């Protein structure tokens, strides 16, 4: 009897994050058993939930569980049709697809290199010193609005401006970035020094 009272007390005092995670975890186990997934898929699923919890937390637990299981099965090399998971859950296909899309987008975002890595790579191609790279990164940090796509010519423009528009460097940066000198000049005009 005392154990049940303690369990009830614990459920009632859990924070929203813990409660949400417990609900998603319970739904994950239930759908996994129903769909008959191997253990390595479940391990991949748990890793995805922990890493991208903020992305899937806005969806109902059954939707989040099916979306994460479906994505994890693909990532673990054991893809299954979505219908296999939907027959084990009351989640709607439309919401699961939306949650899976958001999860995939978050996964893509985390795989992209940081702007600092991007600038360092470009600077290494044209043999620029570290102080120039540091100045270029600081310049780009001040101009966050231009970094939405992390275009190589924006990084090249920052490097060109940070090196005080050294003669001959513009052409080398254009070749290294795979851009034209005009696009680098235009990006440099938009950067606030």
Structure description:
The protein is mostly helical and 193 residues long. It folds into 2 domains: 2-111, Orthogonal Bundle (Cyclin A, domain 1), CATH 1.10.472.10; 115-190, Cyclin A, domain 1. Helix content is 74%, strand content 0%. It is built from 12 helices and no strands. The protein has helices spanning 2-13, 16-35, 39-51, 53-56, 61-75, 82-86, 93-111, 115-125, 130-142, 152-162, 169-177, 181-190. The chain is elongated, with a radius of gyration of 24 Å. The termini are far apart. The relative contact order is 0.08.
Keywords:
Cyclin A, domain 1; mainly alpha; 193 residues; 74% helix; single chain
What is this structure's SSE topology?
Blueprint: H1 2-13, H2 16-35, H3 39-51, H4 53-56, H5 61-75, H6 82-86, H7 93-111, H8 115-125, H9 130-142, H10 152-162, H11 169-177, H12 181-190
Task: Provide a brief overview of the structure.
The protein is mainly alpha-helical and 193 residues long. Helix content is 74%, strand content 0%. The chain has two domains: 2-111, Cyclin A, domain 1 (Orthogonal Bundle), CATH 1.10.472.10; 115-190, Orthogonal Bundle (Cyclin A, domain 1).
Overall average residue pLDDT: 84
The CATH topology assignment of the largest domain is: Cyclin A, domain 1
Number of strands: 0
Distance between the termini: 70 Å
What's the order of the H and E elements? HHHHHHHHHHHH
Contiguous low-pLDDT stretches (5 residues minimum) are: none
How many strands, what sense, and barrel or not for the largest sheet? none
């Amino acid at each position: 009897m005392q154990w049940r009272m303690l369990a009830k007390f614990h459920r009632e005092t859990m924070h929203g994050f813990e409660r949400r995670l417990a609900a998603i975890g319970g739904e994950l186990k239930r759908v996994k058993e129903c769909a008959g997934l191997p253990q390595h898929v479940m391990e991949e699923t748990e890793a995805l939930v922990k890493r991208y919890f903020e992305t899937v937390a806005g969806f109902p637990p059954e939707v989040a569980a099916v979306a994460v299981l479906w994505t994890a099965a693909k990532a673990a090399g054991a893809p299954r049709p979505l219908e296999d998971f939907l027959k084990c859950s009351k989640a709607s296909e439309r919401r699961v697809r939306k949650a899976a899309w958001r999860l995939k987008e978050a996964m893509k975002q985390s795989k992209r290199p940081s702007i600092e890595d991007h600038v360092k790579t470009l600077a290494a191609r044209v043999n620029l010193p570290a102080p120039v790279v540091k100045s270029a990164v600081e310049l780009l940090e001040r101009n966050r609005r231009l970094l939405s796509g992390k275009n190589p010519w924006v990084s090249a423009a920052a490097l060109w401006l940070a090196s005080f528009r050294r003669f001959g460097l513009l052409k080398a940066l254009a070749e290294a970035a795979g851009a034209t000198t005009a696009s680098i000049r235009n990006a440099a005009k938009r950067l606030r020094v």
